[in-house]
Amino acid sequence: MGGILVLRGHVLPVAGAPLADGLVVVEDGRISYVGPAGRGPHVAATATEVDVGGGTVLPGMIDAHVHLVADGAPDFMGSVVGSTPAALAAVSAANALRALQAGTVAVRDLGAPGGIAIDVGREIAAGRLPGAGVSAAGRAITAPGGHIPYLGVEVLGEEAMAAAAREELARGAGGIKLVATGGVLTPGAALGNAPFAEDELAAAAAAARDQGRWVAAHAIGNEGTRRALRAGATSVEHGYLLDDETVGLMATTGAVLVTTQVAVARMLRNRHLVDPAVVARAEEIHGVAVESLRRAARAGIPIAGATDAGTPFNPHGGVAEEAALLVADIGLTTTQALRAVTATAARCLLRPDLGHLSVGAPGHVVVTAGNPLDDVAALTDVRAVVLAGRQVDRPTTTPTTGGTA
Ligand SMILES: [Zn+2]
Prior knowledge:
Layout: E1 4-11, E2 19-27, E3 30-36, E4 48-50, E5 56-59, E6 61-66, H1 76-81, H2 85-101, E7 104-109, H3 116-125, E8 133-136, E9 140-142, E10 152-154, H4 158-171, E11 175-179, H5 198-209, E12 214-219, H6 222-231, E13 235-238, H7 244-253, E14 256-259, H8 261-269, H9 276-298, E15 303-305, H10 319-328, H11 334-340, H12 343-348, E16 365-368, E17 382-387, E18 390-391
Parallel strand pairs: 1-4, 1-5, 6-7, 7-8, 9-10, 11-12, 12-13, 13-14, 14-15
Antiparallel strand pairs: 1-2, 2-3, 5-16, 16-17, 17-18
The structure holds zinc ion (ZN).
């Protein structure tokens, strides 16, 4: 990992004010300087200079909610249950690489069969596979007959919940995923369902929090969301139906709201190819969801933008599009939206060292053609990606539909 890499130009550190004429130096994989170019250190002639080309230098993006085992195929469940573990591992590796090439340097995987996402993350962390870093939940913990059993394990009862959580953590999970309500992609699981008692959620959450790990709650309806928050969830996933009381409770717990609007937007864009029952459900909640997320934003709830990548027509690497939706639909400023897909998303992974350019932080840097603070869509036009001080090889064109693995 030796060597020095420098980037000069317009810099958005996220941790501090924009620098019109900035310099970022990465040494041995870590940032050693970020600040005005004029006050920067003397850089050896042997250093690698990344061509910023009048673009903007910013921290690598983070996607706080993905499913690496799926690549955006129209039949999400079918693509998972119809594949062998080896095939799913290969798809996961390809998706982690695809995310990285799009400028996402770390993802949080919230549900995969067996230990697939954990294992792929371990290979990436060891440098044996190229890709975005992975913090994985392992199997999602869901109730019998609940949402996404094919990405998890069906559990009931406090002791079994704690045991299931401990099993994933022992396997190397970065945290746990609790399916606290119904979901859009599971017909029959009403969105307002609250399949777990608060004590059941709390038993699993305590097992994770005792080990300093995160607790992500798939939470759409109010009752299930409130139980998850009281049980110790560190993030609320989706949050489509939150009322004032639930938002108020969230404000007291410090949980992060993880939005996944791009999943709905991309599915509705391809509605003619999706199961009509799922489309009807997505349409039914779309307007309400926007109101719910606006309510949370107005209340000052920290918002992380994520993709739920892997769901129908939602290939990996699209977190920049979520940032654009946070501005267009939820009313965030461009500065807030940038933070949502960098520093706040990193908070969901319990990785305060990621999502900002600061001395000592890992040298994960992205260059965009335009300035995301002027137009947040600039985040979708990534020109260079640097991971731990090394420039990532990228395809010249990025496919726009499901993966090819
Ligand atoms: Zn998900």
